[in-house]
Amino acid sequence: MIVIRQDDLSGEATRGLVALHLAEMHAFSPPGHVFALDSSGLMAPEVTVWTAWIGEDIAGMAALRQLPDIGELKSMRIHPQYLRKGIAAALLEHIIAEARARGLERLSLETGSGPAFEPALALYRKRGFSEGEAFGNYVRSDFNRFLHQPLAGPTL
């Protein structure tokens, strides 16, 4: 059974998953194109982090950064031991529900392109996200992709 709980990043397992996430983002992204948050960024007041657990094992993590009127999905990472077991879908549904509960108009994300990013892109598309324009402080490049899902209010 998957248990999702808000996380303060104080645990060793969570810090390890954040480190893995950053290492993989740097390994699969061109220099200057990694926008993943480190632990200090994930502890910013506008960011909420959730982790997914199976028993005593951390299975995944994801964060929601609240921007004016929209939410940004950040730091979605599944532990390699738990890939393709429904963890990412459960975390994504949790964050969509939280963004709706906060009254946000849409949920957006920035990610990369290429084979390492295709499983995540497939999940987002399956859940109704569509590609669109850059948002926040992001600038479009040949590498990054921007996906959005309307939640309430005006649509994209």
Any overview of this molecule?
The termini are far apart. The chain has helices spanning 12-28, 39-42, 87-101, 118-126, and strands at residues 2-7, 47-54, 57-67, 70-78, 106-111, 130-131, 145-150. The protein has a domain at 2-106: Aminopeptidase (3-Layer(aba) Sandwich). It has a 7-stranded mixed sheet with strand order 1-2-3-4-5-7-6, with helices on both faces. 29% of the residues lie in helices and 31% in strands. The protein has 156 residues and is of the alpha+beta class. A hairpin with a 2-residue loop joins β2 (47-54) and β3. The mean pLDDT is 94.
Which features would summarize this protein structure in a list?
about 160 residues, alpha+beta, seven-stranded mixed β-sheet, globular
Summarize the structure.
With 156 residues, this protein is an alpha+beta fold.
- CATH architecture assignment name of one domain: 3-Layer(aba) Sandwich
On the 0 to 100 scale, the average pLDDT is 94
What's the CATH class of one domain, please?
Answer: Alpha Beta
CATH superfamily of one domain: Gcn5-related N-acetyltransferase (GNAT)
CATH topology (level 3) name of one domain: Aminopeptidase
Structural category is alpha+beta
Distance between the termini: 35 Å
Gyration radius over CA: 15 Å
Order of helices and strands: EHHEEEHEHEE
Q: What general outline do the C-alpha atoms trace?
A: globular
Q: What low-confidence regions span 5 or more consecutive residues with pLDDT below 50?
A: none
Helix content bin: 25-40%
Largest sheet: 7 strands, mixed
- Biggest sheet: strands side by side, in what order? 1-2-3-4-5-7-6
Please count the beta strands (DSSP E, at least 2 residues each).
7
Measured by DSSP, the beta-strand proportion falls in 25-35%
Tell me the number of helical segments per DSSP (H or I, 4 or more residues long): 4
